[in-house]
Amino acid sequence: MSRRRADSHGSLGPDDEVVPYSDDETDDELEPSIDEQPEGLPSVSQLSDLNWQVKANDRSFCKQPQFQKKFFLCFKRCKYAGNAIRTYKYNVITFLPLNLYEQFKRAANLYFLALLILQIIPEITTLPWYTTLVPLVLVLGITAIKDLVDDLVSVTCLFQECRWMQIQVGDVVRLKKNDFIPADILLLSSSNPNSLCYVETAELDGETNLKFKMGLKVTHERLQEESQLQSFDALIECEEPNNRLDKFTGNMLWGRERFPLDLDNMLLRGCKVRNTDECHGLVIYAGSDTKIMRNGGKTRFKRTKIDYLMNYMVYTIFVLLILVCAGLAIGHTYWYQDVGSRAWYLSIIFKHSSPLSVFIHYTYAGWLICVALMLFDFLLLSVEVIRLGQSKFINWDLQMYYSEKDTPAKARTTTLNEQLGQIEYIFSDKTGTLTQNIMAFKKCSIAGRVLNHLFNLSVDFSSNIFAEKKFQFYDHHLISCIQSKKDKDVLEFFKLLSLCHTVMVEQREDDLVYQAASPDEGALVTAARNFGFVFLSRTQDTITISEMGTETTYEMLALLDFNSDRKRMSIILRFPDGKIRLYCKGADTVIYERLSPNSKYKDVTQEALDVFANETLRTLCLCYKDISRADFDAWSRKYKEASIAMRNREEALDEVYEQIEKDLLLIGATAIEDKLQDGVPETIAKLAKADIKIWVLTGDKKETAENIGFSCQLLTDDMQIYYGEDVNSQSKIKERFFPEGGKNALIITGGWLRRRLRLRRLGKKPSPTSPQDSQPMNDHEKELRQQDFVDMACECGAVICCRVTPKQKANVVNLVKKYKKAITLSIGDGANDVNMIKTADIGVGISGQEGMQAVMSSDYAFAQFRYLQRLLLVHGRWSYIRMCKFLRYFFYKNFSFTLVHFWYSFFSGYSSQVAYEDWFITLYNVCYSSLPVLLVGLLDQDVNDKLSLMFPKLYLPGQQGTLFNYKNFFISLFHGIFTSLIIFFIPYGAFLQTMGQDGEAPSDYQSFAVVTASSLIITVNLQISLDTSYWTFVNCFAVLGSMAIYFGIMFDIHSAGIHVIFPSAFKFTGVASNALRQPYLWLTIILTVGISLLPVICIQFLCKTIWPSVGDELQRNRRKFERQAEEPPKEKPTFQRGARSRRSAYAFSHSRGYADLISTGRSIRQKPRARRDAPESIKEAPQAENI
């Protein structure tokens, strides 16, 4: 029966283009946004409590008593954090207690500790105390050292760290070009006009385009000299530290005047100063109070699914042991009353003991110690060794080494390797993770002609002294048209690209440095430069370009900037001959609505746009319009009135823009490639075949994210795409949201998530009175909405969440973990991905163009997204198979070993007398049976790496957990019971009423112990041989060597010489040589081993013959598939004719440009002197500095 569906009122109308505030866990710091705020309520800034106070150049101000807060009991400390940041879990004081606490969360360690306490008591112990203490100390010590090394790797290691740690709130700091910003700083002044400062925010939002910040006018004018900065004593009142990257509210009190502060005045930690020689600022938030750290989330202790499963299995074994030991103790009590009490040697021991005392002290506790120690001896230590080795294999994998940046893969933890083989959901960032953050001008359509037909030889731009060397174009006809100057449409096309933009240029020595608000704009202006239309300079009201070597200056009459609603930008210019022309570029969906009925090339350009979009290129339409002097004068008056409007200024300006941006004439369209990283589509396709679902979580706009989804083949043409507004009223049909599973894709925004789910605790604020309040009515309603969202999204083959904040990324990951109980992996390359990386079960950092924040918080790191398929499908799958095989075999061999005591107890009065020699018990898991299984855990592979990548379906058993679960555990248990029965009773039958060749009867206890021990060692070592899929010389040596070590050590410790030296420790003098010289005992051993292994051989033969798995089929035809894997793959065309049209993605910045800076002249320096010669090179700053 379908449960009640959560009401979705209030989810309507999300703002797709606005990144919502980052929701904290409680979300209490969120105020209603402007569009949601009811009339009559105060504004957001009025509601904010400005409780954070900072005094410039006064560190002692922050240490006053009113700024102290409690942190533990009655102890207080300053609420202002220092600037030292730690990404590690331990420090000198907390390492030992925290690490021991984490280790004793493992039930096996806790169980060992309890047994050690019992074993210290002499009256009840059956084995020496050191047999428990030594393994326990080794396990705890080696694990602690490994955890410490892992943690030291996580310490942030920036070259500025030693200086950053000294910065405190209230300090005035100086930053220079290309410096990372060490704290959240209020910009006071800079070397640029009007104290502009350009920053790259890739660490925060993944965007490599430059953004500008500006100091207050008063600080710009009065804080330029060092002496002025030293005497600066303003008081800053602002909001408490929070994680909202898009909001800051505060005031500056200075000289009895109050100045408002907002986000445009703030330089946030993690950003990078660009194209600004020098700037000065006041530290407002430091260390853990900074916005980037507030979005980073908490460092979590991660454990694998197998770890949790092993805990439950330990509990199960413990319960079984208690029951078995209790049964044996009860049997011994009754046996002692009936038989043992009449034996003189027992009556002396138990003379003063009651039956209850015999039961508890002498039998039950003795059995508990005896049996338990044999089950878990060295289990955890072996697991840690295997994990360490698997981590080293990842580090040493040359196929995951990125030579261009000399970056190898790095396993930054050694405890999660097998979890890599169980991933069900991948959450990936887009910018810098799937893409390279590089835009390239690929194609264009001019006057209905598509240009850049592919030729083998690229166009030679050497004749153009301004050409960018890395720029490549393959249509020689286009360059010929430009050089001939006969095609006016082509010339007008590139003239538009060189004039219609908000790029700013600055001459530095012999270089022109471009400052682009968008990498798209940078790519377009760079393309125009290569084709001979070079943007040279601009002032407040002019723009100068070089047209095929001729320098021309145009008067700029108006600049109509881009925003997310307009999706276009325009510029109105007066030509040198007095003609007035409007140039416009924008998304085709808005340009076509504004074209003149007389405009040509609409149909053919639309066809070209369809082709470009199907090739996943980002498109823009270019158009123009000539304006008469009278029309412009009339429009200009309206424009000036709208510019000074006191209310609804933006709406008034948009309305005026609409009046002039109509009746446009189409020139053509551009196609820009947002370059993917190498191998991204192939990686996503392989992971999808492995039934791994990939979600893209990005702060980018919806159109761009969707376009990249098609580029990387996450989205395909046969998918039905649903948007947030489409599924607001979607209801389940027969327990499903969509009629067809797997062929659906969901694209939602952060605004939709915020309205739909309200990821916060509702008890903090008054409950809403109606569903129209855009939030759930109560906690139950919230839970229903969250679960419905997860169920709906998980029915889709692909999910893209765009315009989401770092906190929302983490919330989405957490929801899937919570409601699907799935193993998740997050991958990203920027600081905005850190929270998501920490929240997922596995975090992967890409050491890309956005710094090292993601890498420092990750569990695994490498340089390219394509390495993810090898990490999961090869290393992850192998690690999971190896660990499962190791655990199954370890339980089997220890059950076989331990349960022999159980059968022996039936013939020893149910006492806790052990069936083996003490030294055999001590060395069984250390020397005799450890090495072969360790090598299987380190080296075994069912198929090689090429076949693992060739057949992703091999990954499915890990997701389903079929190789190690309770079923496998009980199979190992029953297999161990069967083997122990054979190992005990066949020698028992052979020893019963026998006589040796020399007339002696070797049927004593010690000879029996030697035969059973020898049978056990040979059986378990041959059993691991049957389970080994990948044989090497090392494996063969380990199996034979383990048996040789057993016999060698046994003959040594049974020798008379060692007995003379240590008579109390070595009591089996001459037993081995006496027993093993009897041929019929060797036949007994052979018979025991054969009967133990024969059923296993038969079952394995039947399974591989009648019910073969995918891996079995591959092994059977291994050579055939290996030949196929060596063949070069056939290239698939990226463009498929007949595919449906996609023209939703356009190439443009989704943030505001520099139009207001240009039109007001705030960013313009003095006009540079006329140049006699052209500069040697021109570089576009955002791209050139990031490549």
Secondary structure layout plus pairing:
Blueprint: H1 44-47, E1 52-55, E2 68-72, E3 75-78, H2 95-103, H3 107-120, H4 130-153, H5 161-164, E4 172-176, E5 184-190, E6 196-200, H6 202-205, E7 210-214, H7 217-222, H8 226-230, E8 235-238, E9 250-254, E10 257-261, E11 266-267, E12 272-274, E13 278-285, H9 291-294, H10 305-338, H11 344-349, H12 355-376, H13 379-395, E14 410-411, E15 425-428, E16 435-446, E17 449-451, H14 476-484, H15 488-499, E18 504-508, E19 511-515, H16 519-530, E20 533-538, E21 542-547, E22 550-560, E23 568-574, E24 580-586, H17 588-591, H18 602-614, E25 618-627, H19 629-643, H20 649-660, E26 665-676, H21 680-689, E27 693-697, H22 702-711, E28 720-723, E29 744-749, H23 750-757, H24 779-794, E30 798-802, H25 806-820, E31 824-828, H26 834-839, E32 842-846, H27 853-856, E33 860-862, H28 867-905, H29 918-928, H30 930-939, H31 945-950, H32 956-960, H33 966-991, H34 1005-1027, H35 1033-1053, H36 1056-1061, H37 1071-1075, H38 1079-1106, H39 1110-1116, H40 1118-1126, H41 1155-1160, E34 1177-1180, H42 1181-1184
Parallel strand pairs: 15-27, 15-31, 19-34, 27-30, 28-29, 29-30, 31-32, 32-33
Antiparallel strand pairs: 1-8, 2-3, 4-13, 5-11, 5-13, 6-7, 6-12, 8-9, 9-10, 14-33, 16-17, 16-26, 18-19, 20-21, 21-22, 22-23, 23-24, 24-25, 25-26
